[in-house]
Design a protein that fits this description.
Elements (H helix, E strand, L loop, with lengths): L7 E5 L3 H12 L3 E5 L7 H5 L12 H13 L4 E4 L3 E8 L2 E7 L5 E6 L1 E4 L3 E3 L17 E3 H9 L14 E8 L15 H15 L4 E6 L8 H12 L3 E13 L2 E8 L4 E7 L1 E6 L1 E3 L1 H10 L26 E3 L9 H23 L1
Parallel strand pairs: 1-2, 1-7, 2-3, 7-17, 9-15, 10-11, 10-15, 11-12
Antiparallel strand pairs: 4-5, 5-6, 8-16, 12-13, 13-14
Helix pairs in contact: 1-3, 1-8, 4-5, 5-6
Length: about 350
């Protein structure tokens, strides 16, 4: 039987999902303690220097600052930076989390419920098979590398600083690939490639942009807001095909593959290749799963128990998950799940009191 609970919810992770969870807990009148291992809040959009959010191209830093300010100014939220949860005892309503903070100082946080929002990691395209020569060729970059360029208001070849005449995106790098064990679609990569293609055309209207895709997956409104806009308004070229190799050819890159629509091989020279890398479970997600005794689902993300009708409750009573810690999520998913996890956590505690 659950003890009369502590109305404190510990939120682990300070990205979009964690920020929304902490704020929602506090807005519902409970106390939230937000634990973030980095020295700042904002998660991947801040850590990876995102320029603009998908799909609305809103300035990422401005948008995240609004979320951060709402948390930092809330009287019912406490923030622990440079801190990690290292151990957990107790049960729902009476958890005791050991937190290691700056300089190795430890404290024990009592909590009635826990929300895990530890996010994801971008796939390392040089980790497996190296067919795209990511670590060999300077002008092969990732979506993350491109985002950092857009943050500086430019798109250039890293090798010589020149604005590229021809750029191509290669989709599904580290996703939908049974050969490396990543048997899932990362959901956001197609939309982000469309967004970045638009950004390239805005920065350099004369640059020709190509997208090599297996199947174009622009979910919901992204189809209209990004894919058709990129194709019709900005004249981005979409090629259904599979890229098998990227090689150096003079001062350019030779992209080799197959045009699967026409059923023939294709070779095309590019100045810059952008790899659309997918999502993988973060090290923080794996670590918190061990600390909290949470099972992982078959792809290595934190498992939930409610299927599509409850995407935030884990098999451990009193522990909830939000955002990409439980699988590939876009920002809309992550923020929505942060709010849902908060509502379920606070509801559980108050129902137990009654």
């Amino acid at each position: 039987m659950m003890l009369v609970p502590n109305e404190t919810v510990v939120v682990i992770g300070g990205g979009p999902a964690g920020l929304q969870a902490a704020r929602s807990v506090a807005d519902l009148g409970a106390r939230a303690v937000l634990v973030e291992k980095r020295g700042f809040l904002g998660g991947t959009p801040i850590a990876q220097r995102y320029a603009a959010l998908t799909p609305d191209l809103r300035d990422a830093e401005t948008a995240m600052r609004e979320m951060i300010d709402a948390v930092e100014r809330h009287p019912l939220v406490e923030v622990r930076l440079n801190a990690e949860v290292t151990a957990c005892e107790g049960t729902a309503g009476d958890f005791r989390l050991k937190v290691s903070g700056p300089d190795g100082k430890e404290e024990v946080l009592p909590a009635g419920a826990v929300i895990v929002a530890t996010g994801f990691e971008h796939f390392d395209p040089g980790r497996e098979r190296q067919v795209f020569s990511y670590y060999e060729l300077d002008d092969v970059i990732t979506l993350v590398d491109a985002e950092a360029m857009f943050k500086e208001g430019k798109i250039v070849r890293p090798s010589d600083g020149r604005v590229p005449e021809r750029v191509c995106f290669i989709q599904c790098v580290g996703s939908r690939d049974r050969g490396i064990g990543n048997q899932w679609c990362s959901k956001v990569c197609c939309g982000i490639a469309c967004k970045q293609a638009i950004e390239i055309k805005k920065l350099s209207p004369g640059t020709k942009v190509f997208v090599f895709y297996i199947d174009l997956r622009a979910f919901g409104f992204w189809e209209d807001e990004l894919y058709w806009k990129a194709q019709e308004e900005y004249k981005v070229n979409f090629i259904r095909g599979v890229v098998t190799e990227v090689l150096k050819k003079g001062d350019r890159l030779l992209v080799k593959g197959e045009d699967t629509t026409m059923g023939r091989p294709v070779e095309i020279e590019m100045d810059l290749v952008i790899l659309s890398v997918g999502m993988e479970p973060s090290e923080g997600t794996k670590a918190m799963a061990k600390v909290l005794g949470l099972p992982l689902e078959s792809h290595g993300f934190i498992a939930t128990k409610g299927g599509p009708l409850d995407t935030v409750s884990t098999p451990v009573e009193g522990v909830f998950v939000a955002g990409a810690a439980s699988g590939p999520r876009d920002l809309e998913d992550s923020v929505s799940q942060g709010g849902l996890a908060a509502a379920k956590a606070v509801a559980m505690l108050r129902q137990a009191k009654v």
